[in-house]
Amino acid sequence: MVAPSLNSHTLTPKPIKFFCSYGGRILPRYPDGKLRYHGGETRVLSVDRSISFAELLVKLGEMCGTPVCLRCQLPTEDLDALVSITSDEDLANLIEEYDRAAAAAAATSSPSSLKIRAFLSAPKPPKNRRRLPPQPPPAVMTPRRQNHRSIHLPAAAYHPDPSPRPGPGAFATRQGPQCTL
């Protein structure tokens, strides 16, 4: 849960605004190379300061229509230094940074409503899942004789003679060297 910041006009907690971008990519801008967000959707989400991280993720997921991961830009940083928000503590620290930047802006007589710049993406698959290396296409097994089986390999996998390669579907009728088991 996040500590409330009181609005100077009323004694009610001021809501937090997230400037949320999703479905696009961060790309370098031509000609200066500065990073920018391109494509996708951008929406503003206003939430109560007492929101928990879990509740915030639910609201963000509802907005996007899918579960999301939350990464935010700190007020003094560029897009190359996004911070992953994964807990209530991370959320509280992020809001504290924005409150500090808003106070500094107010002290220089440029009061503004700073929005937390949030970038949403699909969650990554769990790390404990092992990815199997890609397997070659299975060989096609066809009966040749009663006690033998013949394996016809795709042309790209085995082609011993210099004649032109057969087209798709020609393996069953092709005469020539074959692997037998």
TrEMBL record:
Residues 121-181 are annotated as: Disordered. SMART domains: PB1. Pfam families: PB1. Residues 30-121 form the PB1 domain. Coiled coil: none annotated. PANTHER family: OCTICOSAPEPTIDE_PHOX_BEM1P FAMILY PROTEIN (PTHR31066:SF10), OS05G0427100 PROTEIN-RELATED (PTHR31066). This is PB1 domain-containing protein.
